[in-house]
Amino acid sequence: MTKRNLTIALLLTCLASPAWATVQGTSITAAMQLKADSTYVGHRIGVWYNATDQRTGTYAFPIFRYQWADPDAATSHNLANALAFASATVAYTCDEARTVQIWPNFTSSTPRTETVNSSITLTGTSIWGNTISEIMDFECTSVTAFTEMHCETKKAFKTVTAIALSATTTYGANYGAAYITLDIGYGNKLGLPYRMAEDTRMKELIDADGTGGATLATAGTVVFADLAAVTTATGDWRGTWKPNTIPAGTADYVLYYIPTDITQRYDTDPVRPEWGR
Asked: How far apart, in Å, are the Cα atoms of 216 and each of 71, 74, 96, 207, 246?
């Protein structure tokens, strides 16, 4: 068979294959670690062609299903309410790995034209239990009424273990740390268990009754994995998904997608291998 005919034969084979393969791939699942709420459900077949040496072949994209169990509605104080405006060691656990919001509050009852500028470093763990940190900048201003400028992490935190206030925090003439408290709550972006560096979603479901789930009519919003070396300024190493129907603590959310990289799960290793090589 010539190389051209081989290529055509491989392509026809893939086109004839079902989009979903339901046979469990034990050789694939045995080679990786899976989150408790994730399941390998099959694979999708593709064809690759190397123009340099005219080699062809097939590869299988594994498809995973991940389920978030009744994620709570996001509020300004899911984790903490009226914390002192100071660095602290804490022990907060999120219901799911998700983004975290910080809300500063003025405790004085008299509005003043003043500004507080600071940055806060949150440290905690990821969906896989690895240590992560992120720096967030915020500005609080009071004019005729108090305006709370909240900030939200880009990374998805499963736990928060420390809050570090910037040493360069500045206050207005009539304010100090004693007049500000912090609330810490959830964001609506859910952390992905495996990397998604491009849009590989296949199905999005909401399951309010445990019978399998209804397809979400409108696709949610994905923030793709940050492929840069991990720092306190980078986004989530795996990416986040914000469902179009916002979590309210009353339904499970299910996402089917093809991970960009299922062999590397650690936050400190941003390697993205080539599929089919």
From this structure: 16, 19, 20, 10, 11
Q: d(Cα 202, Cα 21) in Å, to the nearest integer?
A: 13
* Contact between 196 and 259 (Cβ < 8 Å): yes
pLDDT above 90 (res 267): no
Helix residue spans in the chain (DSSP H): 3-16, 26-29
> Would you kindly state where each structural domain of the chain is located, as residue ranges?
80-188
- What's the half-sphere exposure (Cβ side, CA atoms, 13 Å) at 179? 20
Within 10 A of 166 (CB to CB), how many other CB atoms are there?
Answer: 14
Kindly report the backbone phi and psi dihedral angles of residue 269, in degrees, each rounded to the nearest multiple of 5, phi listed first: -125, 95
Q: 204-236, pLDDT tens digit by residue?
A: 999 866 666 788 888 999 999 999 999 999 999
Give, rounded to a whole angstrom, the gap between the first and last alpha carbons of the chain: 23
Three-state SS at 32:
coil
Q: ∠ CA 163-167-172 to the nearest 5 degrees?
A: 105
pLDDT tens-place string over residues 85-111:
788 999 999 999 999 998 877 766 554
The residue among 77, 69, 123, 121 whose CA lies nearest residue 103 is 77
